[in-house]
Design a protein that fits this description.
By secondary structure, this protein is α/β, with parallel strands linked by helices. It has 2 domains: 4-155, Rossmann fold (3-Layer(aba) Sandwich); 159-199, no CATH class. Helix content is 45%, strand content 16%. It is built from 9 helices and 5 strands. It has helices at residues 4-15, 17-24, 34-47, 64-70, 83-95, 132-145, 168-176, 179-191, 195-199; strands at 54-58, 75-80, 101-105, 118-124, 146-155. It has a 5-stranded parallel sheet. The protein is globular and about 50 Å long.
């Protein structure tokens, strides 16, 4: 069953695929290109694996990252549930004659993965669109799909942004009484001397699935 959040995400990406492609390629007007920053970190991790043979990008969007990796001679696969995104990604690979890039329109939960088949898996801006139960399932999928010694890179929107956007997201946090707890968490992450100290901190409650 598709949640309200997932359906909204799918509708957005269907109608904004071209805009997303423009942002991913650095053609937008924003000074900070978050997509490019996330992609660069994945490429940095790839650089740490000189024997990298296979790569999977979950929620690949318009395929820029998959194409970057494939140009290095690595078998790279991108999976996304928005057909419009996959079409643009596939066209990019054809236009640039990138033979090692492959794109599949699918949910990662329906995508057939062989055990220990990928040296590197990334999921940037993906986990925001799945439920807590699906998150646990996704991590299980990744653990099974990663080859021994492989790496998993995951990037997600920082919830602290909700406190400064001054919009409906801020109102949601105020109504939930989460503002103080979120700030305390943030301070603890920057001042704690150990992970145990962080884990002992009271955390803000998770947002409602369809908020």
């Amino acid at each position: 069953m598709t949640t309200k959040q997932q359906q909204e995400a799918l509708d957005y990406f269907k109608s904004h695929a071209e805009d997303w492609k423009s942002k991913a390629q650095g053609s937008g007007t924003t000074k900070v290109n978050v997509i490019e920053q996330r992609n660069q970190y994945v490429l940095y991790v790839a650089d740490e694996h000189p024997a990298l043979r296979s790569y999977l990008d979950v929620g690949c969007g318009t395929g820029e990252l998959v194409c970057h990796v494939a140009k290095r001679g690595i078998e790279a696969i991108g999976v996304d549930f928005a057909q419009e995104m996959i079409e643009l990604a596939s066209q990019k690979a054809r236009d640039e004659t990138i033979t090692k890039a492959k794109f599949v329109c699918s949910s990662i939960f329906d995508f057939e993965i062989q055990r220990e088949s990928y040296d590197l898996i990334s999921a940037n801006g993906f986990i925001e669109y799945i439920s807590q139960q699906e998150l646990h399932t996704f991590f299980d999928v990744v653990a099974e799909a990663l080859a021994p010694g492989g790496s998993f890179v995951v990037g997600s929107r920082n919830r602290l942004f909700n406190l400064v956007t001054m919009n409906d997201f801020t109102l949601q946090e105020l109504k939930a009484g989460s503002v103080d707890l979120l700030l305390q968490e943030a301070v603890k992450w920057t001042t704690a001397n150990s992970i145990e100290e962080v884990l002992s901190t009271d955390c803000a409650p998770l947002q409602a699935p369809n908020a």
